[in-house]
Specification:
Elements lengths: L1 E5 L5 E7 L13 E2 L3 E7 L7 E4 L2 E2 L12 E8 L8 E3 L5 E4 L11 E9 L10 E11 L12 E5 L7 E4 L14 E8 L5 E4 L7 E5 L10 E10 L12 E11 L12 E6 L7 E4 L13 E7 L5 E3 L5 E4 L14 E10 L6 E11 L7 E3 L2 E5 L7 E6 L11 E3 L5 H6 E5 L4 E6 L7 E10 L7 E11 L9 H7 L4 H34 L41 H4 L31 H14 L48 H7 L6
Parallel strand pairs: 4-11, 12-18, 19-25, 27-33
Antiparallel strand pairs: 1-2, 3-6, 5-9, 7-10, 8-9, 10-11, 13-16, 14-17, 15-16, 17-18, 20-23, 21-24, 22-23, 24-25, 26-28, 28-31, 29-32, 30-31, 32-33
Pfam families: CADH_Y-type_LIR, Cadherin
InterPro entries: Cadherin, Cadherin-like_dom, Cadherin-like_sf, Cadherin_CS, Cadherin_Y-type_LIR, Catenin-bd_sf
Function: Cadherins are calcium-dependent cell adhesion proteins.
Length: about 675
C-alpha cells in the first residue's frame, strides 16, 4: 500500500511511503492424487527391492513450508499373503517396490494396496490426508512343469470317428498363459491308430479324439503312453524337467446304440394291383448292442397312401390296400414308405429305414376318347374331326389304338365313318352327302394294345352346322346346331325386350314416388311427431328445465292461406280448424278462494269443446312456474266455497307457492 500525509488544507507534509503486507500460508488444502486408481505389475518370484510403480499426489499449499510437503505410506494390503508387508513405498517419491520374497501367481494373482498421502511432512496429528488405490498384478513366468494327475479315463463308446472325449491327463500350475499350454504326444501305445490329440479345451485339460470308430463290442479298453511338455521353456533358475510322461488307460463304456437297417432305402419290384394281404418283403433292423438283451419293435413312420402294414415283431411288410401305379402318391413308378425300429433300452433308441417299391405297370386302364366335343359341316368333304385317345397306363399297354364305330344303332355307321391315320390318331367324317344341322352323340369304340387289350365306348358330341365357303360354321348355323329354331329365337328376344321394359317402368315409378314424397312432407318431422303416443299429464317434474320437446310445430301458423285454399271437408289433424272461437271465462281481478275450482273447470270445458284450440290432440303448454319446487303435487287440492278455511300453511310450501300464499293466506301482495 502507498500512504500519504497531508494537512487539513490538503498540503503534503511528508513524502509518501510504501507499506508491504505479506500473506502467510495456512494448511487449508489436502494432497490430491493424480489418479484415484493406479495399475502396476510385477513378475512372480521377484526379488525384494524390485520396482513396481509410482504414485503421485499434489498439494496446493506452499511447497517451501511444511504445509505443502507430502509424505506417502501404505495403509493396507489385500490379501496379506504370504506376508502382510509384501510391498513398501518411498515416503518422498511415492515409488512402490517389493520388500519380501514369495510372490507366486499360482497362489495370489493380484494385490490391492491402499496408499495414503499426508502433508505437514507426514504428521498425522496436524497434516491433511488423502488416499488412492494401487492394483498390483502378479505376472506369470514358466516356473512349473506339467504333471499328470490321472492315469485312468472312462469314455462312452462313439460310433463315429473324430468325436472327442474330454480327458484330464495333465496340469500345469502356470495356467492362463503360453507357459501353461502343454503339448501331448503318444509315445508308445497298442491302439494309437484309434486316437489323436487336439488343442486344450480348458485349464488342465486335453482333448483326446477318436481317430477311428470305437465300438464297445470290439474293444473295451485302450492303453496309451503319453508325453506332455511345455510350449515355452522353463524360467531361468528352475532346475526341473520341462516334460512329463505317463501311461493312460482309456476304458470304453457300453451305451445303448440305436438299431439300424443294414439295407437302408431298400428297393423291391412288383406288379401293381397285388391283392390286399400280400407279403412283400421283410424289412428288419439289427441291434448293435450284442451284450444287451433287448427287443426291437417296428412301426410305420411315413406311409402316404396307407397301403402297407408292418409286423411289429419281425418287420414283415404286407399290403393293406391295392397298390395302384397311376396314383398321385407314385413318383416315377416308385412308392416310398419309412419305418421305425426302436429298442427297449434305457434310454430307448430308434433308427429309421426307407422302403422303395417299384410298381410294374399292368393294363388296368381303358383308353379314353379325345376330344369330347367337336363340330362339322352338314355337307361332307369340307372338314373332318381328328380324334385320338388317352391312356393312364404306360407302354406297352397303350397305343397303337383301334378306333371303330359300333354296329348298334345302325344309324351311326350309316351317317358316319372313321379313317385311320396312324397308331394314335383317326378321322371322323360324314358318310352321307347331307346331315341336318343339330347336335349328335356319336359312340366310338377305342381299344388299346395291352395284354389282354382293354376297350372303352366313348361318346363324342358333334355339332353339325351349315358352313361358309371356308368351311366354318355360320352364326345362324351355330344357333341352329344348338337345337333352336327361328321361332324359339324370336320368342327369346321378345321375352328379353319385355323384361327390359318392365325394369324401366319400375325405375320410372320409383323416381316419381320419391318425388311425390318430397313434395308432400308433413309440417313436423316424423321423428318429432308425438301424435298417437302415450301422454302423461299429471307429472310436473322439474318444470321446463327437463323438457326437451320442440314445441314450435304445435303453435298456430302465422298465415291461414294454405288452409283456406284447401278443398272443403279435407283437413289435416295437425292444422288449426276454421270456425268461431269459443269464449273462455275471464279471471276476476280479485279472485275469491271459492271461485278457483269453478274457474278451472269452466276453462277445461271450454278447451275440450274448442276444435281450434291447440295442441290438437297433442301436448299442452302451460305457464312457466319457476325453476324447481321443494313442494309436492297440488293435484289433491279441492276447491271450497267456505270462507273460513286456513291457508297459512301455503307459506311452508316454498317459493313457488308464495304468490298463492299472499293471495289467500292473508299476506301482502308483492
Amino acid at each position: 500500500l502507498r500512504a500519504h500525509a497531508v494537512d487539513m488544507n490538503g498540503n503534503k507534509v511528508e513524502n509518501p511511503i510504501d507499506l508491504y503486507i505479506y500473506v502467510i500460508d495456512m494448511n487449508d488444502n489436502r494432497p490430491e492424487f493424480i489418479n484415484q486408481v493406479y495399475n502396476g505389475s510385477v513378475d512372480e518370484g521377484s526379488k525384494p527391492g524390485t520396482y513396481v510403480m509410482t504414485v503421485t499426489a499434489n498439494d496446493a499449499d506452499d511447497g517451501t513450508t511444511a504445509n505443502g510437503m507430502v509424505r506417502y505410506r501404505i495403509v493396507t494390503q489385500t490379501p496379506q499373503s504370504p506376508s502382510q508387508n509384501m510391498f513398501t513405498i518411498n515416503s518422498e517419491t511415492g515409488d512402490i517396490v517389493t520388500v519380501a520374497a514369495g510372490l507366486d501367481r499360482e497362489k495370489v494373482q493380484q494385490y490391492i494396496v491402499i496408499v495414503q498421502a499426508t502433508d505437514m511432512e507426514g504428521n498425522l496429528n496436524y497434516g491433511l490426508s488423502n488416499t488412492a488405490t494401487a492394483i498390483i498384478t502378479v505376472t506369470d513366468v514358466n516356473d512349473n512343469p506339467p504333471e499328470f494327475t490321472t492315469s485312468t479315463v472312462r469314455a462312452a463308446e462313439q460310433p463315429q470317428k473324430g468325436v472327442g472325449i474330454l480327458v484330464v491327463i495333465s496340469h500345469d500350475l502356470t495356467r492362463g498363459s503360453r507357459n501353461w499350454g502343454g503339448m501331448g504326444l503318444p509315445t508308445t501305445t497298442c491302439a494309437h491308430s484309434h486316437f489323436s490329440f487336439s488343442q486344450p479345451k480348458g485349464p488342465g485339460e486335453k482333448i483326446q479324439d477318436f481317430a477311428a470308430a470305437v465300438d464297445y463290442e470290439m474293444n473295451r479298453a485302450f492303453m496309451l503312453t503319453v508325453m506332455v511338455s511345455n510350449q515355452a521353456p522353463l524360467a531361468s533358475g528352475i532346475q526341473m524337467s520341462f516334460q512329463s510322461t505317463a501311461g493312460v488307460t482309456i476304458s470304453v463304456t457300453d451305451v445303448n446304440e440305436a438299431p439300424y437297417f443294414p439295407t437302408n432305402r431298400k428297393l423291391i419290384r412288383l406288379e401293381e394291383g397285388v391283392p390286399t394281404g400280400t407279403v412283400l418283403t421283410t424289412f428288419s433292423a439289427v441291434d448293435p448292442d450284442r451284450f444287451m438283451q433287448q427287443a426291437v419293435r417296428y412301426s410305420k413312420l411315413s406311409d402316404p397312401a396307407n397301403w402297407l402294414n408292418i409286423n411289429a415283431t419281425n418287420g414283415q411288410i404286407t399290403t393293406a390296400a391295392v397298390l395302384d401305379r397311376e396314383s398321385d402318391y407314385i413318383k416315377n413308378n416308385v412308392y416310398e414308405a419309412t419305418f421305425l425300429a426302436a429298442d427297449n433300452g434305457i434310454p430307448p433308441a430308434s433308427g429309421t429305414g426307407t422302403l422303395q417299391i417299384y410298381l410294374i405297370d399292368i393294363n388296368d386302364n381303358a383308353p379314353e376318347l379325345l376330344p369330347k366335343e367337336a363340330q362339322i359341316c352338314e355337307k361332307p368333304n369340307l372338314n373332318v374331326i381328328n380324334i385320338t385317345a388317352a391312356d393312364a397306363d404306360i407302354d406297352p399297354n397303350v397305343g397303337p389304338f383301334v378306333f371303330e364305330l359300333p354296329s348298334v344303332p345302325s344309324a351311326v355307321r350309316k351317317n358316319w365313318t372313321i379313317t385311320r391315320l396312324n397308331g394314335d390318331y383317326a378321322q371322323l367324317s360324314l358318310r352321307i352327302m347331307y346331315l341336318e344341322a343339330g347336335v349328335y352323340d356319336v359312340p366310338i369304340i377305342v381299344t388299346d394294345s395291352g395284354n389282354p387289350p382293354l376297350y372303352n365306348t366313348s361318346v363324342i358330341k358333334v355339332k353339325v352346322c351349315p358352313c361358309d365357303e371356308n368351311g366354318d360354321c355360320t352364326t345362324i348355323g351355330a344357333v341352329a346346331a344348338a337345337g333352336l329354331g327361328t321361332g324359339a329365337i324370336i320368342a327369346i328376344l321378345i321375352c328379353i325386350i319385355i323384361l327390359l321394359t318392365m325394369v324401366l317402368l319400375f325405375v320410372v315409378w320409383m323416381k316419381r314416388r320419391e318425388k311425390e314424397r318430397h313434395t308432400k312432407q308433413l309440417l313436423i318431422d316424423p321423428e318429432d311427431d308425438v301424435r298417437d303416443n302415450i301422454l302423461k299429464y299429471d307429472e310436473e317434474g322439474g318444470g321446463e328445465e327437463d323438457q326437451d320437446y320442440d314445441l314450435s310445430q304445435l303453435q298456430q301458423p302465422e298465415t291461414m292461406d294454405h288452409v283456406l285454399n284447401k278443398t272443403p271437408g279435407v283437413r289435416r289433424v295437425d292444422e288449426r280448424p276454421i270456425g268461431a272461437e269459443p269464449q273462455y271465462p275471464i279471471r276476476p281481478v280479485i279472485p275469491h278462494p271459492g271461485d278457483i275450482g269453478d274457474f278451472i273447470n269452466e276453462g277445461l270445458r271450454a278447451a275440450d269443446n274448442d276444435p281450434t284450440a291447440p295442441p290438437y290432440d297433442s301436448l299442452l303448454v302451460f305457464d312457466y312456474e319457476g325453476s324447481g319446487s321443494t313442494a309436492g303435487s297440488v293435484s289433491s287440492l279441492n276447491s271450497s266455497s267456505s270462507g273460513d278455511q286456513d291457508y297459512d300453511y301455503l307459506n311452508d310450501w316454498g317459493p313457488r307457492f308464495k304468490k298463492l300464499a299472499d293471495m289467500y293466506g292473508g299476506g301482502e301482495e308483492d
